[in-house]
Amino acid sequence: MEKTDMEVKKEEEEGAPAPSVERVFDGVRVPAWREQVTVRALVVSLGLSVMLSVIVMKLNLTTGIIPSLNVASGLLGFFFVKVWTKALERAGVLRVPFTRQENTVIQTCVVAAYGLAFSGGYGTYLFGMSSKIAVQATEANDSQNIKDPKLGWMIAFMFVVSFVGLFSLVPLRKIMIIDYKLIYPSGTATAYLINGFHTPQGENLAKKQVRTLGKFFSFSFLWGFFQWFYKSGDDCGFEAFPTLGLKAYENKFNFDFSAMYVGVGMICPHIVNASLLIGAILSWGIMWPLINNQKGNWYSADLPPNSLHGLQGYRVFIAVSIILGDGLYNFLKVLTKTVQAFVSDSQKIRLSTLPVSDEVQMAKPPIVSYDDDRRIEVFLKDQIPKWVAIGGYSIVSLVSIITLPHIFPPLKWYFILVAYAVAPVLAFCNAYGCGLTDWNMASTYGKLAIFVFGAWAGAHHGGVLAGLASCGVMMSIVATASDLMQDFKTGYLTLSSPRSMFVSQVIGTSMGCVVAPCVFWLFYKAFDDIGVPGSQYPAPYAIIYRNMAILGVDGFSSLPKHCLTLCYVFFALAILINLARDLSPKKVGQCIPIPMAMAIPFYIGAAFAIDMFIGTVILFVWQKMDRAKAAAFGPAVASGLICGDGIWSLPQAVLALAQVKPPICMKFLSRKMNDRVDAFINSAS
């Protein structure tokens, strides 16, 4: 029931929290859940899903760093539906108002769809199964441990594993959102963004943000097109520009003029970008040149550059050790916080009088805000029956247990049964931890599955393929369950029905199951060097995940000399750095680098870290000059740079499939090499 002005005034005098968001929307009818899931919302969602899946796929196959694209999807969803409704209004067709609930449906649908471009493993476990990656690993590259990508089985795999997580935590939505009041920072931020769009002031700002995004989208797209003309071969084009000198370029230190990664740097926190640069300097500036000097001593001088028995092995396995150390520390940290918070919240709930039947009434706290009253009323209105969750989980699990062994023969049915038996517990831990910290630990649970199921299958029974496939099963369940709970939080804060959130998540997941494999297939067919180290699309995490599976099955026998010792050192160092971050005073801790971020350039190189550091410097200077404007338009500028360069990949792929090659090779030579080339040309003429 709505409060009177006297009650509101009394609450303010008693120190009730903050201005009400929902009072801004007083008098606005909350549409029924079927009215929230509209045709136009689904059409816009499909278009944005394709667009953002292309961007995520490109990021996946270049560095594996995926920033949040919530701002981009929220702004673009708002913009496209506004254009749609304006066009219908001018045509004289009855206009249905664009509501924040419909905006939330678009956001949920799009995030569910493009999320599968990441959790589907196209740059990690799934591509790690391929012969292209297996050849680089040199171990376990027999036929029973290899499965090359095919569009048919990839789509089938996505449909089989992607829906299980949606049903695993549905019965717990009230406990997680209302009783425990978990924050879910990303879901909350998205809700405030959407609520802001639908106020008069917010709508005007959103229009300006969309215009800004459009300008930088156009610049980034055209810049990508311009660069294409100069890249007709290897080491050609602006990517090969030796901005810091030829010697630095040989060690992968250069600014490669990537608008996308400058944009990513503007979105990622400053400490992440600084950590990447520190990792690049430590590895490519210090360690790899020193280890390279041991060629012929620590490893054979006759090995090819990409052999894991040579320098490449140190790059890959030391990066793996840092990632595992960081992942283990944060897993235990989040698990500890989750258990502590869960026990604390459970005690509070037992001490309070929550309703357990119609006769028992809940004793309300002294002050309950109007917003909470309104949101709880809407959130509890449209229930999702428990039989839907239990029946859905059981049926989809059964289908998976029957189907997956046919797709991956080493993955036995009882492996999948065990995975689905423990998955709801792990999904709950991940979703609860994500609600507290915003850390989605899905990839960590996936790595755990690699070691457990890979070792269970054994080296002689396709253990590597079984480990990678089980990683996909576990990651999909845990990631999807956490994403759904984030969406419930967003829906709770925008008065969107839980049913519309669940339905839009199911529809978005269905879109992603088709869109993500098709986008990957386009990249895979268009670019012959995909997955090759040093190429345009090296897919760095694919070899890392495959080597984790090999370690789980074969142990450490394949490592080059002293590599295992260095791995132990960096594993311990990752844990110690995390401890220092958490135990130091806040101002000191936030300046200590993040080990996970430091590890990424160990394998890939320094160029993208320099791009992202330039992005963070641009944003830092902008914040110093005008913090309010940087906060309002920084994400729009970054999203424009990311989306423009990302979407250029589509026409670039089409040109590659049509065998249209760039006309110019812009290459940079030393003076001595240039004299030799001139002499050769003169002698030939």
UniProtKB/TrEMBL annotation:
Its main location: membrane. It comes from the Eukaryota. One of its GO terms (cellular component) is membrane. Pfam families: OPT. InterPro entries: OPT (IPR004813), YSL-like (IPR045035). It is a multi-pass membrane protein. The keyword Membrane applies. The chain crosses the membrane at residues 39-59, 65-84, 105-125, 151-172, 271-291, 311-332, 387-408, 414-436, 448-481, 501-524, 563-580, 600-622. One of its GO terms (molecular function) is oligopeptide transmembrane transporter activity. Keywords: Membrane, Transmembrane, Transmembrane helix, Transport. It is found in: Membrane. Belongs to the YSL (TC 2.A.67.2) family. This is Metal-nicotianamine transporter YSL7.
